[in-house]
From TrEMBL:
<dbReference type="InterPro" id="IPR011812">
    <property type="entry name" value="Pep_trsgly"/>
</dbReference>
<keyword id="KW-1003">Cell membrane</keyword>
<keyword id="KW-0812">Transmembrane</keyword>
<keyword id="KW-0472">Membrane</keyword>
<keyword id="KW-0997">Cell inner membrane</keyword>
<keyword id="KW-1133">Transmembrane helix</keyword>
<comment type="similarity">
    <text>Belongs to the glycosyltransferase 51 family.</text>
</comment>
<dbReference type="InterPro" id="IPR023346">
    <property type="entry name" value="Lysozyme-like_dom_sf"/>
</dbReference>
<protein>
    <recommendedName>
        <fullName>Biosynthetic peptidoglycan transglycosylase</fullName>
        <ecNumber>2.4.99.28</ecNumber>
    </recommendedName>
</protein>
<keyword id="KW-0328">Glycosyltransferase</keyword>
<feature type="domain" description="Glycosyl transferase family 51">
    <location>
        <begin position="49"/>
        <end position="208"/>
    </location>
</feature>
<keyword id="KW-0133">Cell shape</keyword>
<keyword id="KW-0961">Cell wall biogenesis/degradation</keyword>
<comment type="pathway">
    <text>Cell wall biogenesis; peptidoglycan biosynthesis.</text>
</comment>
<dbReference type="Pfam" id="PF00912">
    <property type="entry name" value="Transgly"/>
</dbReference>
<dbReference type="InterPro" id="IPR001264">
    <property type="entry name" value="Glyco_trans_51"/>
</dbReference>
<dbReference type="InterPro" id="IPR036950">
    <property type="entry name" value="PBP_transglycosylase"/>
</dbReference>
Length: 224
């Protein structure tokens, strides 16, 4: 490998780490203007409906429901939930089906910085950026970022846009069932609709509501 190539690789490595680090520091106080997914969808012909809301303008019901649905150890882990990974592996060995095991922190890192897809390169970068996010931001800020950039339907991003689109209310005024419906569709928001929920979505929302009531201390990083 030539000296020039080594130098280029070094600078590329610095850029891949320093760029997201600086942006993450900025996101401690600044809203996220857009994500790669939003830009991709925009070029595919979809609009962008999003309205940034701070921590205090998002219902605690939604925060708790999303943790219960997506990552019930969010308040305890440091980016990776090794217990959940073990469960995923055991399920794969038992029935040959592989479900997602991403934490909220991993999903936030992916949404903030990376393109959609399942390539090894993207997964490696996600694994790099997740601890960076955890070391730079408090848990409640990571959750606020996630709830503002998550896709909740074609062209619908963030809790405020979703609350308006599906329930004609604000993110701050979501009730427990509405919050559970929004959490229920997160794994596939382009297939399921929180405003016109299928029997499956309604059933999953009920499970999420019960699970939310059972988590107790596991929700101690959620601020109302």
């Amino acid at each position: 490998m030539t000296r020039l190539m080594k130098r280029l690789l070094l600078w590329l490595g610095i850029l891949l780490l320093a760029g997201p680090l600086l942006v993450t520091i900025a996101y401690r106080v600044l809203p996220v203007p857009a994500t790669p997914l939003m830009v991709i969808r925009l070029f595919e012909g979809e609009g962008i409906r999003k309205h940034w809301r701070g921590r205090d303008a998002i219902s605690s019901h939604l925060k708790k429901a999303v943790i219960a649905a997506e990552d019930n150890r969010f308040c305890r882990h440091h980016g990776f939930d090794w217990n959940a990974f073990g469960d995923v592996l055991n399920e794969f060995q038992a029935n040959g089906k592989l479900r997602g095991g991403s934490t909220i922190s991993m999903q936030t890192a992916k949404n903030l910085y990376l393109w959609p897809g399942r390539s090894y390169t993207r997964k490696a970068l996600e694994a790099l950026y997740t601890p960076l996010l955890e070391m730079t931001l408090p848990k409640d800020r990571i959750l606020t970022l996630y709830l503002n950039i998550a896709e909740w339907g074609p062209g619908i991003y963030g809790a405020e846009a979703a609350a308006r689109a599906y329930f004609n209310t604000s993110a701050a005024r979501l009730n427990p069932y509405q919050a559970a419906l929004l959490a229920a569709v997160l794994p596939n928001p382009r297939r399921f609709n929180a405003g016109a929920p299928s029997a499956y979505v309604r059933s999953r929302a009920g499970i999420i509501q019960r699970r939310t009531g059972q988590l107790g201390p596991l929700l101690n990083c959620v601020k109302a």
